[in-house]
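Run log, item B.
One chain of 101 residues. Sequence copied directly from the ordering sheet:
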Amino acid sequence: MTDLDRNLAIAEGWSPTFKIMGDPTRLKLLSAIHFAGQHKLTVSELAEATGLRVATTSAALRSMETARIVSCARDGRTMRYGIADDRVHRLLHEIGAGHSY
């Protein structure tokens, strides 16, 4: 495999992630989850924090969960969201998104 082939394979591997992160709604949600910490916020809390409708937030989280970028943890009857993909976590740091703690 040449260096170019390796670079093209990397680009192919990152493409779905960048497609998710390229959407302002999903990037806002990822930033809010990242800031709050793993599995701290519910759909309603994320909607409130980002100024999005609950339905919009829920749909965006479902698409990111399907893409394995976020995960949810059950807390009784409540679902709380976290970043599932460590590459996305590191990338959020690279763009300047920090933590609350």
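Observations after the first pass:
- The chain has a mean pLDDT of 94.
- The CA atoms of residues 47 and 54 lie 5 Å apart.
Flagged for discussion on Thursday.
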